[in-house]
Specification:
Blueprint: H1 3-22, H2 30-42, H3 51-66, E1 72-77, E2 83-87, H4 96-113
């Protein structure tokens, strides 16, 4: 099976699992899944977040997802328990489609590590 086919199948399975758990019948999009990962990484799952906090959660998720690729490195937790990352290497310029594939691959790998999918 080609790498692209395997990624597509894993992505669809992951979207199905997460949508069934966190949505009312609608498939979650890439941004919603990134947000969920941010909440997971923060570890404060049972609370409401303000708009700016939601953006920060997405930033946390992106840093965590791209950490294995060498773009970010965990730095510290602040006094409120929010993780902070530092840039190790700037992301290369990517087209929108390339960004989407990179993020989907990183998300699939994140959930493979957690054994939610195989």
């Amino acid at each position: 099976m080609s790498r692209d086919t395997q990624l597509k199948e894993r992505w669809e399975k992951l979207v199905d699992i997460l949508s069934n758990q966190f949505s009312q019948g609608e498939d979650l999009d890439l941004d919603a899944i990134i947000y969920l990962i941010g909440v997971q990484e923060l570890g404060k799952v049972h609370r409401e977040f303000k708009k700016d906090e939601k953006l920060n959660l997405m930033h946390i998720a992106i840093c965590r997802l791209l950490e294995p690729y060498g773009f970010y490195e965990f730095d510290f937790f602040d006094a409120e328990g929010w993780p902070h990352y530092k840039v190790k290497e700037e992301l290369p310029p990517l087209k929108a489609g390339e960004q989407s594939v990179l993020m989907k691959e990183a998300i699939v790998n994140y959930f493979l590590e957690r054994e939610l999918i195989d």
